[in-house]
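Lab channel / #folding
Pinned by the channel admin:
"Please post every new chain as: sequence first, then the structure tokens as a reply. Keep commentary short and put observations after the output so the thread stays searchable."

First post following the new format, from NK:
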Amino acid sequence: MTGARTATAPAQAPGPAAAAPFARAEALDAALGDPWLPDNPYGFAAGAARDAEGTYPAAAERRLRAEGLHLCHLPGSLGGTLRSFEDTHVLVRVCARRDVNVMPATMFSISAVTTVLAAGTAEQHRTVAAWLRDGRTIAFGLSEEQAGSDVLANTCRLADDGRLTGVKWLVGRGASADAAVVVARTAERGPAAFTALLLGPGELADDRLRRLPARPTTGMRGIDFADLEFDGLPVPPGAVVGDTGSGLAGALRAQQIVRLMSTAGCLATADTALRTALRFARAHRTGGDRVADTPYGSRELALAAAELIATDVTVLAAARLVHVAPGSFGLCSSVVKHVATRLTAACATRSRALVGARGVLREGQGAVLDKAVRDNAMVAVIDTSVLGNLRAIAMHLPAYAAAYDQEPGGAARSDGTAAADRERRLTAVFALGDADVLPGVEPAALDLGVRPKDDILLGFAGHADAIAAELDRRGDTRAAALVAGVHRALGGVVREAAAAQRDRARSLKASPELLDLADRLCLLYAAATAALTWWFHRDRAGLYGEASPGATGWLIAVLGLLTTLVDSREPRSAGHDAAPAARLITELDAAHRLFTALPVRLSDGTAHRAGPDDVEDEKR
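Reply from TO:
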């Protein structure tokens, strides 16, 4: 089936919710109850018990579907509840922090649906939306085991006679989905050799499709990741999504949004791990002092907090940038995925280590922490490979060298009109919490090119000197020095990438150097995002619970950590800079707020109190 693609409606939905962008998340969290209560079916203990048994979160799925969580990524014009991806991200985080398995239980259709929205026809848009509203799950089949991250090597094929043959690997909800979008080969070479197919309940019931047994996984236990084996399955002509040959392009556009949304799982698991470790460290004593007050405990809490805050600020900007500049979101989507997986993995692992021996127990806090760490690792690879993602980032870097002067830290070259347009976009991106300034998202407008258009990289290059000067004027010399250092390092990375690209001995095929530069770029991108966030909020209420406008405690913590990692130094050497992050996270927890820059209240009460399991004999 072919036809013109149609735009989806703006993300904003009419109604009173527009005045309170996070009211839905707060109301849902309150409805799910205090997660610390041991008998709460939507709490931490229940999630850990399901994990130990490998059971599916059926009750949680029913409850969240009744609340409409499965529609939070679907545009309002198609019957969904999407206001903005910032709002959706927060909504998912408050649910997934209890048990990240609620994401695949309710939202694994996002890859398939967004692929159809990116490449399909208006009729196909309506079809998948109707299935979603009816509570059906739509699986997405792209990966194949023998090809790994090289999707161009996939062999699952739709033959000229309309029959589908091959195997799709580790398909989320593959054993239980009602429908599926499958990307199959329809030609011999190149990205245009693949076509997306929309298979309905009829095709999935055909005995020429075998759903192989779900494969056991280390994280997200109880969720079925199953191979789909096609043995000459007849595919009706109307199942072709959009145009023949557009399937891979549609899938890659969709993955930009999927990578962004998957970071909700990264942040949710890190939030749970850090919150558990924080409460342990404040209740538990060793040598007469609370663990949180010891030099080691306070430093580790600070570093874990800085890792989480650095992720959060990067993700929030990305969740808004996808609305404002979809044509240049490709780089950001890859960067935010890499930053989130790397930093939240460190946060979760550090949090578990802080709990000591209790962190290896399969009960209580140990079970919650163990699940958080394993689930976090699962999120890292669930929609992309780390290597494939770094390769995609590396392809972008050389193009940005021309945007910098030849001197280290040089400002980005830009004509006045382009700079003014970018400033308007950046103002919207960093108006955190304000959905009214965001246009709707059109998945078909997401760009797959590597042109130097990213507003964060170019915007930071244009603002860095002013940011550093303003920080100096306010007496924040440490913050000013860190911003200047990020500016110099960022220019150095993109210029070095351009030089490496010209040298065959340093190419991606011959050396890992470009991948290492991509990794550094991701950390510097997060640092640039943090600096721009401070700049656009410098005269507003403080972020992360800071009392005064323009406070820089969180900024110094984030920049100190990220620049240490960029220099390949031990993160602990950033302990002094990170110290304010521990205070901010402690205050957010005491105020029952989500660990984010946004003012999101939680239902966590006083259920978690110090008990015998939290107090160590001071003689130890």
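NK: The two ends are 71 Å apart (CA to CA).
TO: also worth noting, The chain has a mean pLDDT of 91.
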